[in-house]
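[job 0412] stage=complex_fold ligand=manganese (II) ion status=START
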Amino acid sequence: MLIDFHTHTTASDGALSPSQLLLRAVDRGVEALALTDHDTLSGWRATQSLQSNGITLVCGVELSCQWGGATIHVVGLNVNANADPLIDMIDHLQRLRGDRAVKIAAKLEQLGAAGALVGAQALAGDGAICRPHFAHWLVAEGHMPSVSRAFDKWLGNGKPGDIKTLWPKLAETIAVIVAAGGVPVLAHPLKYRFTRTKLRALCDAFSDAGGLAIEVVNGRQSDTEIAALKRLAKDKNLMVSVGSDFHREWAYGADLGVDVSVAGGVSGVWEMVL
Ligand code: AMP
Ligand code: MN
Ligand code: MN
Ligand code: MN
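[job 0412] stage=complex_fold status=DONE, emitting structure tokens
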């Protein structure tokens, strides 16, 4: 069975509209799809008026939070989109994103790229404004040769445009997902580039706060990485989740759909969600 529990649309930094994403998932034989846009449920709301074409749609979100001095992403699966604590947190996160965007633009102007706020806002449209909107604008304006260069030079972690943002604490974010009846999943554990010890500490903190699963597949990953993450999940008594983290069609990225057989023996969060 193919599922995908981590995807993005134009509601955040993805290139496809919710309906385009849904059609692509159906074409690829995906049986269950979670939209997990950054800090918003508006993409999922848009799917409510669409024909689901037999696919099971899961209401999801990828929430930005902080732990151990780093920005951490927690996916909430099967959340109730009408739960007040979740709606309040999303409002707060959108304000943080808006404030951060102004500061990112000011930094980029200092670096010689004026007009970034209007440019990135135009690319974001009604969606949550994200660093990739700035990266794509920098490329479109000829300031940077590619999105990855834009991150390497200006927008990536520790670079000038990586504006410190006081995202909510990990435990608070998990509590909000739980209060909304959702399942908290630690997104892309390897992307934080933590030491083994720190990653294990993150899993402990995540689990202590009510976290239930970690992603063992997020986009393209080696078999070695998947095996290590499955061991970590087993060790920490967490379920596993899988997703492409699809943002757009891209030669180096994963396309929609992950075979759940990858979990092999470790319990999958889809057993709880579907
Ligand atoms: P934000 O949540 O607005 O800080 O943006 C984070 C998003 O930026 C991630 O979800 C990725 O989609 C994208 N991103 C982060 N690092 C890179 C990178 N090095 N190259 C391309 N995209 C990146
Ligand atoms: Mn993203
Ligand atoms: Mn993420
Ligand atoms: Mn993501």
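DSSP finds ten helices and eight strands in the chain.
[job 0412] exit 0
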